[in-house]
Amino acid sequence: MRNCNPCLRLALPRRKTVTMHHAAYVFDAYGTLFDVHAAVRRHADQIGPDGQLLSEIWRAKQLEYSWVRTLMGAYADFWQLTEQALDFALRKVPSADKGLRAKLLDAYWRLDCYPEVPAVLKALKASGAKLAILSNGSPEMLEAAVKSAALDQVLDDIYSVEAVKRFKADPSVYDMVTTGWRLYPGAVSFQSSNRWDIAGATKFGFRTVWINRSDQPEEYRDFPPALILPSLEGLLAAG
């Protein structure tokens, strides 16, 4: 688990040693560590002016399918949902070249991580905390993304919903961490860019940090995060 593209390598500014307050830091993958819109952006010139719309529909349907299948008790792995969501998005956005389907799917295996991610995770690891990903992604998707971003050397574990065959925000997903690491929920700091994911993790008992990268309005007010940050970098000072 090494580091992102050379152009994304960052050195954190000199700072005093940070004292971490949690035994474990667990991260959602897509949208939190990895930029879900990077696949479309990589082929933006070929897709045309509706590329952002295509990407937003792709992501929205990917999540919708995960929620509906969990409610129905009809699990299908996240890669299948990713393919189905892209097919829907391509039909919904007729200006997008359907011939790019294979390229877009291939790019999803190698999503860019956000610029601050390698340095922040490295600093947390150096503090003695355990680090993991907890994601809807299939094991193969997560392994590919982590290796592409060179994060494999800083992560202790990767938890995929494949083990419980239910998607977030089902409590059994969050329980994989506490059971696997034999920790009380309160010992875990959970970071996600998805407000609904933060709500689920808060209800489960994790200390939660909402990484609100796109300045979305607050919701799920009865399950508030402990902290709201615009990126992961603020996590170091917050502890």
Please, could you describe this protein's structure?
This protein is an alpha/beta fold. The chain folds into 2 domains: 6-35 and 113-238, Rossmann fold (3-Layer(aba) Sandwich), CATH 3.40.50; 38-108, Putative phosphatase, domain 2 (DNA polymerase, domain 1, Orthogonal Bundle), CATH 1.10.150. It is built from 10 helices and 6 strands. The protein has a 6-stranded parallel β-sheet with strand order 3-2-1-4-5-6, sandwiched between helices. Helix 9 (195-204) links the parallel strand 4 (188-192) and strand 5 (207-211). Helix 3 (51-72) crosses helix 4. The longest helix is centred in the first third of the chain and has 22 residues, at 51-72.
Helices, strands, pairings?
Elements: E1 24-27, H1 38-42, H2 44-47, H3 51-72, H4 78-92, H5 101-108, H6 117-126, E2 130-135, H7 139-148, E3 157-160, H8 171-181, E4 188-192, H9 195-204, E5 207-211, E6 227-229, H10 234-238
Parallel strand pairs: 1-2, 1-4, 2-3, 4-5, 5-6
Protein name: (S)-2-haloacid dehalogenase
Pfam family, one: Hydrolase
Organism: Mesorhizobium prunaredense
Quick tags:
alpha/beta; Rossmann fold; DNA polymerase, domain 1; 2 domains; six-stranded parallel β-sheet; 6 strands; 42% helix; hydrolase; EC 3.8.1.2; (S)-2-haloacid dehalogenase activity; PGP-like_dom2
Find the count of extended strands (DSSP E, 2+ residues): 6
Uncertain residue segments: 1-19
CATH architectural designation of the largest domain: 3-Layer(aba) Sandwich
**Mind telling me the C-alpha Rg?**
17 Å
| Global shape | globular
How many individual helices? 10
Q: What is the element string, with H for helices and E for strands?
A: EHHHHHHEHEHEHEEH
Number of self-contained structural domains: 2
The averaged pLDDT comes out at 91
